[in-house]
């Protein structure tokens, strides 16, 4: 009698699909400017299957509406979403209205205070509107993760928590550092990556995008999908864009940012201020120009063409995206006018009293300088003009009248000073 036990035969892996020229091109576009694509071979097969079946991939980006305003640094991931959207895939803009009330601990060394429901709703109102300046809103699936997180209830949350170990959570860099330093870690913070991962299960995501600081959370999504019997998503992380200083990441707190709702002239001038070296980083992460176009442009600059021409092209592309082609043309004309010492058209106007007024006090009252001491310093540096004439006397008194104050290259105010 044969006592050899039998077990179900393992399912043979599906044969690899050929990577056509179109798939190879889509893969190159996807990889442009990315920090990591995990796992690239898996994603190539997803692309090939999508091409063969005609079924678009489901591409997920989850954003917690922690603040209502976006800057260009935020759009790096949105740009990648738009590229994938243009390749014909279904992009899902997931608003983390549930997870934002937990608070994402990524990259933090202290517990992050969760937002209230009212704060989340207020921020979410403007979030997608701003994101739609990059994405094709008509082809974007908008979801809120409260759709499937709220119904879980206490029982469902406990069952979800049973699928991941504390040891795995402590592999996360910020958690391990906080634990070793004795910095408190609240239990609810462990729920954040779990809930983000569960989003991928609920949406059956093929690819999830995020910044480099989101890598752990994105990989949790892969693991949970496997645990739920789904095909695992691939993970794409984008680098953090440096700000105007070319050193620190773009941030409002560091005042090195370009807001996507700023006036076109301001955006243009700020983009023109970046270095010739940093310009290529901005092209790679922010421009929608093809790789072939960028290679040609770079060759022309290396061949002797003025880098300023490339920077103008970048600035016009960005301003046109967030405003209009006419606004981009106007911004260029305004920038050229300013560079020749001219006064821009869109100068804010205000009326002040107290003539005659000290120049330093006037600069502070007009909002061009934060303090009298800063105003005095700007005069010393030759950075203050009245109607185009440089002011060198710190004790100058300005009589009643209407005139244009200028600080540096970009700050102007048309002031009517009365007695």
UniProtKB/TrEMBL annotation:
Q: Does the keyword Aminoacyl-tRNA synthetase apply?
A: yes
Alphabetical keyword list:
Aminoacyl-tRNA synthetase, ATP-binding, Cytoplasm, Ligase, Nucleotide-binding, Protein biosynthesis, RNA-binding
Compartments annotated for it: namely:
Cytoplasm
EC number(s) recorded for this UniProt protein: 6.1.1.1
What's the top EC group for this one? ligase
Write out the GO MF terms: ATP binding; RNA binding; tyrosine-tRNA ligase activity
Indicate whether Ligase appears among the record's keywords. Answer: yes
Q: Which SUPFAM superfamilies match?
A: Alpha-L RNA-binding motif, Nucleotidylyl transferase
Q: What is its main location?
A: cytoplasm
Binding sites annotated in the UniProt record for ATP: 252
Where the record places motif 'HIGH' region is 65-74
Ranges spanned by the short sequence motif 'KMSKS' region, renumbered to the chain: 249-253
- Give the domain of life: Bacteria
Q: Which reaction does it catalyse?
A: tRNA(Tyr) + L-tyrosine + ATP = L-tyrosyl-tRNA(Tyr) + AMP + diphosphate + H(+)
Output one GO BP term. tyrosyl-tRNA aminoacylation
Which residue numbers delimit the RNA-binding S4 domain? 357-418
- Give the UniProt entry's GO cellular component terms: cytosol
Q: Which InterPro entries match?
A: aa-tRNA-synth_I_CS, aa-tRNA-synth_Ic, Rossmann-like_a/b/a_fold, S4_RNA-bd, S4_RNA-bd_sf, Tyr-tRNA-ligase, Tyr-tRNA-ligase_bac-type, Tyr-tRNA-ligase_bac_2
Q: What does this protein do?
A: Catalyzes the attachment of tyrosine to tRNA(Tyr) in a two-step reaction: tyrosine is first activated by ATP to form Tyr-AMP and then transferred to the acceptor end of tRNA(Tyr).
Quote the subunit structure annotation: Homodimer.
**UniProt-listed HAMAP family:** Tyr_tRNA_synth_type2 (MF_02007)
Q: Which family does it belong to?
A: Belongs to the class-I aminoacyl-tRNA synthetase family. TyrS type 2 subfamily.
The protein's matches in PANTHER family, at most eight in alphabetical order, are given as: TYROSINE--TRNA LIGASE, TYROSYL-TRNA SYNTHETASE
Q: What is this protein called?
A: Tyrosine--tRNA ligase
Q: Which gene encodes it?
A: tyrS
